[in-house]
Amino acid sequence: MNPTTAPAPTASAVSARNLIKTYGTGDTEVHALKNVSIDFAVGAFTAIMGPSGSGKSTLMHTLAGLDTVDSGEIVVGNQTITGMSDNQLTKLRRQRIGFIFQSFNLVPTLTAHQNIVLPLELAGTRPDEAWLKEIVGILGLGDRLSHKPHQLSGGQQQRVAVARALLTRPDVVFADEPTGALDSATGAEVLSLLRRSAREMGQTIIMVTHDPNAASYADRVVLLDDGALHGELLDPTPQTVLNALSQLGVA
User: Fold this and answer.
1) Is 67 a domain residue?
2) Which stretches make up the ABC transporter domain (predicted)?
3) Which partner for 36 in 19, 67, 141, 190 could form a disulfide, CB atoms 3.0-4.6 Å apart?
């Protein structure tokens, strides 16, 4: 495989240098990340891919401050998050990081509107109503804001999750298999929305996925295997992603 080398970004939403992460000891020791250094440009949509156990979820969790590294440095925006306390990380995630999960993670007793603004309420701040209206309009949720999750389709629930992630204008949105629980048509809709949020709103998206078709919506695909980087693809297509994964032994 001869993946394209991306030019160094002029500005990074997230940067990582020499990340090392190990789980277990002795015979059970697993090197989840092996000296990983990577940058994610502002306004770019990046997919992280690799075989099961390659370290892609570990990389996402450490970049988002959900897990720690043994050594190395992670910078989100202009803040170094490695070494932060739990309280500092919680505050940073509320203010500067958005999350989109495969399982939506909506509160079932709250309306769509209440779910969208929940992170801001937890942080003790009020939403920018003009920005909220713009996001809701882009995502086509205007007539669903009073509905509770059980009254929404899977695609509508994921759109609520996307709106919630974008509302705080975070430095970066992490998407963990965001279409894994959706049918192909609804998944394509959500992926198109993520791509639009990057291209039209300048949002930085970092997505973990196992699906070559989902990865093809990204600007760049980063390949991991056995805890180490194994190149990247620019302007990916499902076929080029499949070809690259086949070189990593992924069927």
Assistant:
1) no
2) 14-251
3) 19
Task: Write phi, then psi, for 186 (nearest 5 degrees).
Answer: -70, -40
Segment (H or E) for 159: helix 154-167
- Cβ(115)–Cβ(160) under 8 Å? yes
pTM value? 0.86
Backbone angles phi, psi at 144, to 5 degrees: -120, 5
According to the model, what pLDDT value does residue 250 have? Answer: 64
Is residue 127 in a domain? Answer: yes
Say what angle helices 154-167 and 184-201 make with each other, to 10 degrees.
Answer: 20
Q: d(Cα 225, Cα 54) in Å, to the nearest integer?
A: 4
Classify residue 16: in a domain, yes or no.
Answer: no
- Arithmetic mean of pLDDT, 125-139: 88
Report pLDDT for 18.
97
pLDDT at 223 > cutoff 80: yes
Residue 103 is part of which domain span? 43-58+85-247
| Domain at 196, CATH number | 3.40.50.300
Residue 80 lies in a domain: no
